[in-house]
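User: Sequence recovery, please. Input:
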């Protein structure tokens, strides 16, 4: 299997990554999101990802 973009996890960081990819000016042809459990079911407060609007 191949994909242009693979996102591991559907928490806040994964969801934001997917959103950013799909709303960018250069949308990949295929995006795959992998999740070990049910989508958006993890504890996002315990991850190491951060969402900062001023980072870009």
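Assistant: Recovered sequence (56 residues):
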């Amino acid at each position: 299997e191949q994909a242009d973009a693979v996102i591991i996890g559907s928490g806040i960081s994964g969801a934001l990554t997917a959103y950013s990819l799909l709303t960018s000016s250069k949308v990949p042809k295929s995006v795959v999101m992998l999740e070990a459990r049910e989508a958006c079911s993890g504890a996002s407060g315990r991850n190491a990802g951060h969402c900062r609007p001023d980072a870009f």
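Residues 5-44 form one domain.
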